[in-house]
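Re: weekly structure request thread

Next one in the queue (270 aa):
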Amino acid sequence: MRARLLRRTGHGVALTPAGAEFHSFAQETLASFERTQQRIIETEGATPDQLTLSVPLRLGRLLIPVLHRKFASALPDMTLHVHEEASDRAPELMQSGQIDAMITYAPCPSPDSRGVPLASESLYAVGTKDLLGTASIPIRLSEIGQMELLTPHKGNYRKLLKSSLSAHGIHMKIARELETAEGLLAFAAEGDGVAILPMSNVYQEYERGEVMVRPIVSPEIERILVLYPSPTMNRHTLDVVLPIVRGSISKVATLADWKTVRKNGGVAKI
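Done, posted below.
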């Protein structure tokens, strides 16, 4: 401070007038720091009053109603916003701060490693009875290689299909390339080819008899459904949100044919 703060006395030391001024400043500064520190602790441990969550395209009709009901029951003071977004786009929205968490498929293109596995889903061959028959019996991956396929033009889903087939020496025969699950399903229902989709995307159309589905085996093609919180979400909020999301997944697991993911990498029915 470029001033003498203390002076010696017969009993030790005492504050000079400059020292008394600095002492007052120091007390106020420390008290302010402690108040700020406490507010930060309280903020980090507080549940936010609103949450914006994204789910993959075609999962909205399955998940959005149950998510809203579960959150309203568990956190009635929280405002929940749920958006359907392409899994390839959701990480960009999270990085820009537009969403607080995303339900997506692993591997996720985001560098954030805090993803929490929620469920595993198997993929199905989807098409007309003329192409797939009338019985929903399993179909071997090698049989898929003989069919004209409807696939996305690019993206992680296209990479998954291509790598799954290529790993077994199967070259994809492309009937048509489409950018959305809606497009794949529409052309599959018209018999233009066979799409490879999860039951979560086609359960209503299958129940109505609009398409035939057959589970793919030898081997299965599976995806993992994952919850990724944003880097700014504190641990307390994640601990509050995660059980609600898991409960929502469990509620519709039978319709979607989702299986839980065990710690050892295996799966079991939810």
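Residues 12-44 form one domain. The chain is about 40% helix and 30% strand.
Next request, please.
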